[in-house]
UniProtKB/TrEMBL annotation:
Protein's recorded name: Glycosyltransferase
Acetylation among keywords: no
Single Gene Ontology MF annotation: hexosyltransferase activity
Alphabetically ordered keywords of this record: Transferase
SUPFAM superfamilies associated with the record: Nucleotide-diphospho-sugar transferases
Residue ranges annotated for the Glycosyltransferase 2-like domain, each copy included: 9-180
Family annotation (InterPro entries): Glyco_trans_2-like (IPR001173), Nucleotide-diphossugar_trans (IPR029044)
Keyword NAD: no
Domain of life: Bacteria
Length: 299
């Protein structure tokens, strides 16, 4: 067993990112940390093209341990939990199939967690890029999502940021695998499984911050513009997650979380008021489409 360089499992949920995955995989290989493996699950991509994965594996399978599974679609959260079960490393690094690692930081991050046995998740920062690899924000935490940097250097500050100013994005956290035994896996019934997971972790003061850019987080135009009904669904999910985890916190942080609930309730009301006609039209169209399908089946 390599105790100075414990195995790190880079887990990658892949879905329709054939144009980006080669750079993702190259970035893992380019990081100089020697004891690592890659585990990828293709979660039933609607675009069957995975040529860049197979091409990369053919070229590099003798250099790095890599496991690739291609199966039917089960959704992101089920895929994440399956990847965790397949990972053999002491540490897990989750990377989306369109993001990539930068700055050769795995060794430094492993060393920090090895030297802080009471911490189980090391959180860092990322640059933000567009679909053409142009940098659009120098920091995902502090430029894109407006986190307060001064809060990230102690347990109370981290608790404040995670509970009331959620700003985490990208391949920015290294996790001691045993953390999942302590707080549980990702909730497969939620859309905002990452926020739910982080609430469970920060409630026990298991997070430490490392002030470095460790990855590039890709922001797609489709993610930026959004969809009204999806936005409303997301607001409801955040409220659901907050209420689910409220019992984990003392009164100070319960108040912060309830303030988050109030904020999203106001946002939902404002969305409905501003977009009532558009929402009604979308719902009416969906209803018409369902009726048409029913009549087609009867014929």
């Amino acid at each position: 067993m390599n105790t100075s360089n414990p195995l790190v499992s880079i887990i990658i949920p892949f879905y329709n990112h054939n144009d980006y995955i080669y750079k993702t995989l190259d970035s893992v290989l380019e990081d100089k940390y020697s004891n690592k493996e890659i585990v990828i699950i293709n979660d039933g991509s609607s675009n069957p093209n995975d040529s860049n994965i197979t091409k990369w594996i053919d070229k590099n399978s003798e250099i790095i341990k890599i496991k690739y599974i291609k199966r039917e679609n089960k959704g992101l959260t089920k895929t994440l939990n399956e990847l965790i079960s397949l990972a053999k490393g002491k540490y897990i690094l989750l990377c989306a199939s369109d993001d990539y690692l930068i700055n050769n930081t795995i060794k430094s991050r492993v060393d920090i967690l090895e030297n802080n046995p009471d911490k189980y998740l090391l959180l860092s920062d990322a640059i933000v890029i567009d679909e053409n690899n142009n940098i659009i924000y120098e920091s995902s935490l502090f430029d894109l999502y407006k986190g307060k940097k001064e809060n990230y250097f102690n347990d109370d500050g981290l608790k404040t940021e995670i509970t009331s100013n959620w700003s985490v994005a990208g391949a920015t956290h290294l996790i001691r695998k045993e953390l999942y035994d302590l707080v549980g896996l990702y909730d497969e019934n939620l859309l905002v499984e990452d926020y739910d997971f982080f609430l469970r972790v920060v409630a026990r003061d298991f997070i430490l911050y490392y002030d470095e850019k460790v990855s590039a987080y890709r922001r797609h135009e489709t993610n930026v513009s959004g969809d009204i009904l999806k936005e409303l669904k997301m607001f409801k999910e955040i409220k659901k997650v907050v209420l689910k985890n409220l019992y984990l916190f003392d009164d100070k942080y319960k108040h912060k979380l309830l303030t988050v609930v109030e904020y999203y309730e106001d946002k939902m009301k404002n969305y409905y008021l501003r977009n009532f006609i558009r929402i009604a039209r979308k719902k009416t169209k969906r209803h018409r489409d369902k009726v048409k399908k029913i009549f087609r089946k009867k014929k």
